[in-house]
Amino acid sequence: MLTEKITAYIAQYGQVRRDTPVNVEFGFDPKHDPFAISALFKGDIVEDEAQVWTFARDLIMRGSTSISCYGDGDVRFQYFPEKEGVIMCLKNPTGHADVWLDHEELIAFLEKTTELLPVGEESTEEAVDEILKELLG
Prior knowledge:
By secondary structure, this protein is an alpha+beta fold. The chain has one domain (about 1-135): Transcriptional Co-activator pc4, Chain A. The chain has 3 helices and 9 strands. It has helices at about 55-65, 105-115, 125-135, and strands spanning about 1-5, 10, 15-20, 25-30, 35-40, 50-55, 75-80, 85-90, 95-100. The strands form 2 sheets. Strands 3-2-9-8-7 form a 5-stranded antiparallel beta sheet. The protein has a 4-stranded antiparallel beta sheet with strand order 1-4-5-6. Strand 5 and strand 6 form a beta hairpin. It is globular and about 45 Å long.
């Protein structure tokens, strides 16, 4: 499994709040789910315990280079070249958060995921086998 901390801050009204850092660690486990990226949030902005958001690797790859907002569900991404970052918009029934991610660090992480498992070479059979092994012990 690949994990990496990405520099992140709260974004509010289009401005990056560098006084409000976000502790987030991105993860990619091609054996467990080759199509997914996870983001583990922990620290001051998380009210209770750590929270994990999981989304399609394709979504973050496309959104990290798109100047138009990419995604139409609970997780959306948009690249802002002038801010050298990607805004990740997260929504749930109780609210939303916009998180600025360092573009260079995010792209480096995504390139590492591609080195581990090139896009298009994902296998659902291996992922299902791995999940079954975990469930059956």
